[in-house]
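Forwarding these from the shared drive since the link keeps breaking.
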Amino acid sequence: MSGKTPLKQKAYELISEKIINCEYPPNSFLNEQMLSDELKISRTPIRDALIRLQQNNLIKIFPKKGIVVTGVTPEVISSVYEIRGLIEPYIVRTYSSRINLDYLEVLHKKMTEDLERGPVETTFDDQFHKVITDSCPNKYIQDSIYAANIQDRRIRIVSGASENRLRDSHKEHLVIIEKLCNKEFEVAAILLSDHLKNARLVALNTMVDKWR
């Protein structure tokens, strides 16, 4: 069996990454031929990828009119953080025994050093939340988290959080990790819920001027 990635999966990954990284900005127009020419993939796999992208709310397909990259709206931001705020603290409370605390201890050390060095590294945010969500064995919850995280990456790029917020977020993560490693899971779940509420508020406030 060939180890090559199927073309429709490759097309999905390439297009979704461009949407998430805002190379195809919110509310921009796409079409099959343009995507086919740019990605050097035939239109049939492109079409299959577009169906999946619409299912993940990254695009809207209007028959005989075109394809539009979905916008980053207050409703999108609120919905993404609502689902994350429901699911992630639930995972901490329900699957605490599955959380990789050894990895979190290593991550705590790296994040502390990162704070001391200067401008903080944004990838630590993803690493922290991935440790939490990876501990959940429920496929349906994982599917919901995947869809929310796709939008969350785009929200963070579009909103462009300030260095002060990134540092505050780092500090919030560090306190949550300490509680998790001390097995104070209920406290950690409450702090995680507060952290996600803060992130939602910052994203909405940062985007106010962009929507005007």
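-- next protein --
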Amino acid sequence: MSAGGPTGRDCLAPAYRPSRWRVATAVSLAVVEGGLCWRFGWTASLAAYLVLGAVLTVAAVIDARTSRVPNVLVLPAYPIGVSLLGVAAGVEGQWWPLARALLAMAGVAGFYLALALVAGGRQMGLGDVTVGGLTGLLLGWVGWPAVEAGVLLSWAIALVAVVVLRNRARGRVAALPAVPFLWIGALVVILATR
């Protein structure tokens, strides 16, 4: 939900301690990275998707466990992802996908920032905003329809989770970590869009 928390290796500990979380993280990474390899093949953009896919997957696991998104993991992914997509644009000789990805990154992050400010940081925090920007970057490279579908699917999945949990708990449900939903929705759209 929020950004910050421990720095250095301590911020990654929730993704690998105890061992059941290590297994969950490893399986999630294998599925995500395999899916991205299948989707992009040996294209110039594959490196960006693999790096950012790993960052977003680990961030989702950490947020699911702690309701925190570590800045030390997510913030460096911005220049790395933009640089790798810049290289891909240069190799492919097409600069519009990069421009579209940057516009989508700013648009999605701005949208999530507005939601966080309206909610007063209770349901959505700045960590979710930074993750939203990264998902916007990846969705934007694919295309504008992917950006729209990815954002909508993320919220639809979150809504279903809230309804199911509310019915099971027979009442009020505490705030859910947003990053897993933001990433799952974006990932499904990225994998499904050709």
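The first strand starts at residue 2 and ends at 3. The beta strands are 2-3, 68-69.

- D.
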